[in-house]
Design a protein that fits this description.
The protein is of the alpha+beta class. It has a single domain, classed as Glutaredoxin (3-Layer(aba) Sandwich). It is built from five helices and nine strands, in the order βββααβαβαββββα. Strand 6 and strand 7 form a beta hairpin.
């Protein structure tokens, strides 16, 4: 697990359009990596829309937003198109990103236990070190809180 103040590993992953995204390509910028359980579910859709609605402000502060889940490229593409998401979504089917940030945990849904993504967000500073983390995120106001962490509000 990456702790605040530690360098984030040089992760790379496939996006919805099949291209490869490398964290190292954002050196010198803020990077918001948010993990969400599943495309097209109410909470995940609301979270994506909140980051979308503030995306221009993130960009104005030299910050890139990246969404990550275990969904397929096709699912991500449909999700991104449905909500006009301007930022990339990483296909993490092998859970490389999820395990690097330790967001896969046992969850209980309708009385059944399963391993799933715990909604979490990580802010990587321009120097490549983890600046802040939010675990067990509640969606309302979260995207704004992440932006405030960048702007110092």
């Amino acid at each position: 697990m990456i702790a605040v103040g530690e360098r984030v590993p040089a992760l790379s992953g496939s996006t919805a359009d099949g291209s490869t995204l490398r964290l190292s390509s954002f050196k010198g910028q803020w990077v918001v990596v948010y993990f969400y359980p599943k495309d097209n579910t109410p909470g995940c859709s609301s979270e994506a829309q909140a980051f979308r609605d503030l995306y221009a402000e993130f960009q104005a502060h030299r910050a890139q937003v990246i969404g990550v889940s275990r969904d397929s490229a096709k699912s991500h593409a449909n999700f991104a198109q449905k909500y006009a998401l301007p930022f990339p979504l990483i296909v993490d089917g092998d859970e490389t990103w999820c395990r690097a940030f330790d967001v896969i945990h046992e969850k209980v849904l309708y009385g059944k236990r399963h391993l799933g993504i715990v909604r979490s967000t990580f802010l990587i500073a321009p120097d490549g070190k983890l600046h802040a983390e939010w675990r067990g995120v509640k969606v309302p106001g979260h995207a704004q809180a992440v932006l405030d962490a960048i702007t110092g509000k």
